[in-house]
């Protein structure tokens, strides 16, 4: 049974509830602008919680019609099977136009070269993504990134310009005063559009709870084999076997963020509903990516460099 919320936590919850409607309206306005300003937009979807909230909002923005753009999934080949099964069910349920870009195909083409067979493919997604942009001639990619996730993402505009090489120039971004957005772009250029820029992890979970948005089951507490490594619980998967001498444990865990299985860790939790996760989030002292993403432990400049090269 959860402990009662403190006065500060209850106040934060009330403030979050009051702002949720405004955040939804802002996101839908950004989606409408994207639908109208670009010829070939797509929605980037990892089928994690943020991109599923974005997909839900996009479907709301398109009502009473169908979603007017394809959904693009960059697949490293090292996914949690629960996420892929959820993806396939969702695509079937809503009749989504799913486009899958495979890192494995980039490896076969020779555009991605791994240092060794067991290397994480996470950072190589940039190459596969830019190849998909060129192949489908996308001129805008909607993404579920939020500014509160980490420092490099906090530098993004809502409409973030990418040059014809798919690169991001943080010092050359366009001003966005009074929610006026400059969507002009040249041949071969595109935009990354972030309707959830001003949302927080708490806002996301409050919205999931309010709207009843379905998520992959690994977002909720479940028993999983893990090892303790460098202060994190590393899940045991075919891609992340235990190292010699490591003790395999079974813990009640949930994932705060879902990405490539080679770099995504769960946290200990017994929260089995969105409401219980809201309560946990109110008292969390470590950011979600700081607690769960092994690839984010590099410096801020390293993440910014990856974004300059085309990363999400």
What does this structure look like?
- The protein is of the alpha/beta class.
- It has 2 domains: 7-203 and 298-308, HUPs (Rossmann fold); 216-296, no CATH class.
- The chain is 38% helix and 14% strand.
- The chain has helices spanning 7-37, 49-62, 81-94, 103-109, 125-136, 151-154, 201-211, 274-283, 288-292, 300-308, and strands at 41-44, 71-75, 98-102, 140-142, 159-162, 190-193, 222-229, 232-235, 249-254, 267-268.
- The strands form 2 sheets. Strands 3-2-1-4-6-5 form a 6-stranded mixed β-sheet.
- Strand 1, helix 2 and strand 2 (71-75) form a beta-alpha-beta unit.
- Helix 7 packs antiparallel against helix 8.
- It starts with 6 loop residues before the first helix and ends with a helix.
- The model has no long low-confidence stretch (mean pLDDT 87).
List keywords for this structure.
single chain; 312 residues; alpha/beta; Rossmann fold; six-stranded mixed β-sheet; four-stranded antiparallel β-sheet; 10 helices
Give a short overview.
The chain has 312 residues and is α/β, with parallel strands linked by helices. It has helices at 7-37, 49-62, 81-94, 103-109, 125-136, 151-154, 201-211, 274-283, 288-292, 300-308, and strands at residues 41-44, 71-75, 98-102, 140-142, 159-162, 190-193, 222-229, 232-235, 249-254, 267-268.
């Amino acid at each position: 049974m959860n402990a009662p919320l403190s006065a500060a936590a209850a106040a934060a919850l009330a403030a979050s509830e009051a702002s949720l409607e405004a955040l939804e309206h802002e996101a839908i306005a950004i989606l409408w602008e994207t639908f109208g300003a670009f010829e070939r937009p797509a929605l980037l979807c990892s089928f994690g919680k943020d991109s599923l909230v974005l997909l839900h909002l996009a479907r709301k923005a398109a009502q009473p019609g169908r979603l007017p753009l394809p959904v693009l999934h960059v697949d490293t080949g090292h996914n949690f099977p629960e996420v892929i099964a959820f993806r396939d069910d969702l695509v079937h349920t809503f009749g989504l136009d799913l486009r899958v870009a495979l890192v494995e195909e980039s490896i076969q083409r020779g555009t991605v070269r791994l240092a060794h067979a067991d290397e994480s493919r996470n950072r190589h997604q940039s190459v596969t993504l830019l190849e998909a942009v060129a192949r489908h001639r996308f001129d805008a990619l909607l993404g579920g990134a939020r500014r509160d996730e980490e420092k490099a993402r906090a530098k993004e505009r809502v409409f973030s310009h990418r040059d014809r090489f798919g690169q991001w120039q943080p010092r050359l971004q366009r001003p966005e005063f009074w929610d006026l957005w400059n969507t002009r772009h040249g041949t071969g250029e595109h935009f990354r559009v972030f309707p959830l820029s001003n949302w927080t992890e708490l806002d996301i979970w409050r919205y999931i709870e309010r709207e009843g948005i379905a998520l992959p089951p690994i977002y909720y507490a479940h028993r999983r084999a893990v090892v303790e490594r460098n202060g994190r619980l590393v899940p045991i998967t075919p891609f992340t076997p235990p190292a010699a001498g490591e003790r395999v444990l079974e813990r009640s865990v949930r994932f705060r963020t879902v990405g490539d299985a080679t770099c995504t860790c769960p946290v200990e939790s017994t929260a089995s509903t969105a409401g219980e996760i809201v309560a946990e989030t109110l008292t969390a002292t470590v950011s979600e990516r700081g607690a769960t993403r092994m690839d984010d432990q590099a410096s801020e400049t390293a993440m910014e460099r990856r974004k300059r090269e085309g990363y999400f």
